[in-house]
Amino acid sequence: MRPRIKLARASAIIINDVASFGNVDGGLNEIDKLSVPVDYFDIIKHCRFYYKRDSLASTVLNKIVDFTITKITNGQANCTDAEFEVYRSLAPTLREFFMNACLEFLLAGMVLPKYEWEKVRGNILSTNLDSRRIVEIPTLFWFRDPDTIILEKSLFPGVINIYVKIDRKLVEFIKNRGKPGREDEFRMLNNKYPEFVKQVEQHSGEFKILDTDLRPIFGRKLVNETYPIPYLYPALEPMKHKRNLRKMDYAIAARVQSAIQLIQLGNDEFPCLDSAEFEEIKVQMRSNTQEGYLDRIFQLYGNHTLQINWVYPNTEAMLNQEKYREVNDDIMASLGFPRTLVVGETLRSATMQADLATFSPMATME
Q1: Do 144 and 164 form a contact (C-beta atoms < 8 A)?
Q2: In the beta sheet, which residues pair with residue 143?
Q3: Cβ-contact 136, 119 below 8 angstroms
Q4: Is the dihedral angle over the CA atoms 108, 109, 112, 113 positive or is it negative?
Q5: From CA 66, how far away is CA 64, in angstroms rounded?
Q6: 224-283 pLDDT, tens digit each
Q7: How far is CA 351 from CA 317, 337, 356, 357, in A?
Q8: Taking the model in full, what pTM does it have?
Q9: Residues facing residue 209 across a β-bridge
Q10: Where are the alpha helices (DSSP H) in the chain?
C-alpha cells in the first residue's frame, strides 16, 4: 500500500464590500429585451422611454421641434388694432401648444388636440385692451393620451372611428360622486360635462365611447395597419442594442470594483500543511474590516511564501468606445437626421454638403 501524502490546503474568504455598484439589472424589464415591440401601445411606451434616456434620440427630437416651431409673427393686414392685439396676446400660448403637439406627434405618430372656447374680458387677455370688450378665445389646450385611444376601421374607406377608453377608476369616481374627499371635483365635472357623467353612470366597468369631436393628426401608416408609425420606431432596435452595450460596461465596471483578492500561502517547495496559517491571515484581514467599510490596505504578517494578487476582469471591451460608433451611426440613419445638426460637425471634414443634408429633416418638419 502506498503511503498517504498530506497535500497543501487551500481556503477562501468572501468579504462583503458595500462600496461596490451592487446588482446589475438582468434585463427582466420589457424595455431591456432586444426584440422590438409590435403592439402600438408598447411601441409608444418604448419611444417615450428612449426619448428620456437616450441622448441622441432626445437631442434629435428636441432640435426638430425647435426648428419646426419658431416664433409666431402675425401680420396685421386688415385687422383693427384691437383684433391684432388679441392675436398677439395668444401667440406665446399657441407656440407652446404647437411645440408640445409636435413632440407628441414624433413620439406617438399622432396628435389628438382638444381645446375649449371661453369668453373673457379684454383687460384679462392684455392690458392694451378695454375691459368692456368681451373676447372669445380658445383656452384649456390639451391632448388625448394615445394610451387611452382605440382606432378602428369603419366600413367606409379612409374613415377611422376614434374611441376613448374609460378606465375603471374614473367609473368608480363618478359612481361614488367623488367620495371620499373629491366631491368638489365631481361637482365641477358634472356641471361642465353632464352628458358624459350620465353616460359613465350607465356602465359598471371599463368601456369605450366614440369621440366624434376629435380632429386627429396622423403620421405615416401602412395600408394594412390602423395605427400610425412613430418617428422613433425605426431606431428602437439600435437603441436597444446600445442600451445592452452600456449594461455590459456597467457589469464589467461592477466586477472591477468587486475584484478578487487572491492570497496564496505556500508553494511547491514549501507547501502550507497547516490550516491554522490560513486562519491567521483571515483574522488579520477581518480585524481591519468594519460594517459598511472596507480597508483597501492591510498589514499582514506571513512567511516568505505569502503572495497576494488582484484578479481583475478584462476591461478592454469597456474602455473601447468604437463599439458605440457603429450603433450611433445606425440610430442617426434610422432617424434620417444629419450629424452636423446634432454636434455641429461631420465625422470627416469636407465630406458633406449642408444643403443636401437638410433635405430629410425638412421633409419631417413639414
Answers
A1: yes
A2: 113
A3: yes
A4: positive
A5: 5
A6: 889 999 999 999 999 998 998 888 888 777 766 665 666 677 777 777 766 777 777 777
A7: 30, 16, 12, 11
A8: 0.70
A9: 164
A10: 40-53, 55-68, 81-108, 122-125, 168-175, 183-192, 194-201, 236-257, 275-287, 316-319, 322-335, 340-343, 354-357, 359-365
